[in-house]
Design brief:
alpha+beta, 5 strands, 3 helices
Length: 91
């Protein structure tokens, strides 16, 4: 499936707060993400607790050992919600 992409304001704020090295790594990973958010290199996985809380499936992709981006799908659009350490799972 071909996805469109959108990011929330909170995602952009969180990205801007990361150290430059982590921002660069996130940009590298998002090149893959924009081609396929379920590419095996991203280790995309469902966040069950957040999914239950919000009543929709929430996913995370692994950027680095302790850096994740959280997103959901709305039809054919992948909406990135936040980026950060495992704390982003708390929503």
């Amino acid at each position: 499936m071909q996805y469109r992409f959108r990011a929330t304001r909170s995602f952009w704020r969180s990205l801007a707060k990361l150290p430059l090295q982590k921002q660069e790594r996130a940009r590298e990973v998002f090149r893959i993400f924009r081609q396929n958010p379920f590419d095996p290199r991203l280790r995309t996985h469902q966040i069950h607790k957040l999914s239950a809380r919000y009543g929709q499936t929430i996913y995370a992709v692994e950027i680095e050992a302790d850096l994740r981006a959280v997103f959901l799908l709305k039809g054919d659009t992948a909406v990135t919600l936040d980026i950060g350490s495992h704390d982003v799972y708390r929503g």
